[in-house]
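Session log. Operator J.P. requested a structure for one protein chain; no other inputs attached. Running the standard single-chain path with C-alpha cell output.
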Amino acid sequence: MFYICQRERNDSERCHVKSKQTASRKRPSVAEALAQEIFSGEYQPGDFVPREIDLCERFALNRSAVRSDLRQLVDAGIIERISGHGSKVREYSEWNILDAQVTEWMTRYAAPNPGVQREILAFRLDVEPYVAMTAAKHATAHDLVAIEEAFNGMGSDLDDPDSHNSGRLHSDYDIAFHVAIFKATHNIVWSQLSHILRPSILLLIETSNVSADDPAESLERHRLLMESIRARRPRDAFRASQAVLAGTASALGLEIPDTPLGHSAELLSET
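Structure written below.
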C-alpha cells in the first residue's frame, strides 16, 4: 500500500513539474516574427503580410492568438487591417517610431533607413538645442556630475585595444549623456520625454558611433556642450548642441535637415 501511494505521489509531482514547464514555455510571437521580416525588408510598405489562416498554421496557434499579435503591429502603426483583403504594411511615415517597441525592432532587425534617420535627426535638431540651453540655466551640481560621468564613459574605450568598442565612442554612455541633459532642465515633461526618445536617439547614436571618421572630434564636440552647460552659457550650449547633431548627420552621411527651429529661430535671452 505504501509503494502504491508513493508511486501515485511521484506521478503527481512529475505531472506538476511538467505542467509548470509547459506554463513557463512562451508561445511563438507572431508580432516579433513579422516585425523582423518587415524591418529586414522582406515585406515593403504596400505589401500584404501572410493571411491569418497561414499564420495560424505556421505558428501552430489559434486565430485568437494570431489576431492578438497582429493587433500589436496595428497599434504600432506598422500594418493596417483591410477588410476582405488582409493586413498591409503601412508607409514609414505612419509608423510610431517613438514607440519603444517599434524602435527596439528597428534597432534589432532593420538595415539603416536614411528616411527614418533623417526624420529623427530633424526632430532632435528642433528639440535638443533648446533642451541644452534650458539645462545651462537650471542644472544643479548633481546634474553636472551625471553629465560628466557619462561623458567620461563615452571616451573610455577610445584608446583601449582590449575593448570590443575600441576606437569608438561608447554608445550606452553617449545615450546617458543626452538623457542627463534632458533631466538637467528640471522640467517634468522634458525629463519624461527623454525616456520616450531614448530608443530613437540610440538608433542614430549606435550607427553614427560606428561610422564616425574621427570619434575624438565627436567627443570634443560633446565636451564643449558639457562645458557650456557647466559654465551656464545658454547660447553656447544651444550652438554646441547643434554642432553635436551636425557631427551625427555627417557620420550618417545625411544632410543637416533645414528645420525652422533648429536653424532660424531666435534664441531666448540668457537672463
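Operator note: The two ends are 90 Å apart (CA to CA).
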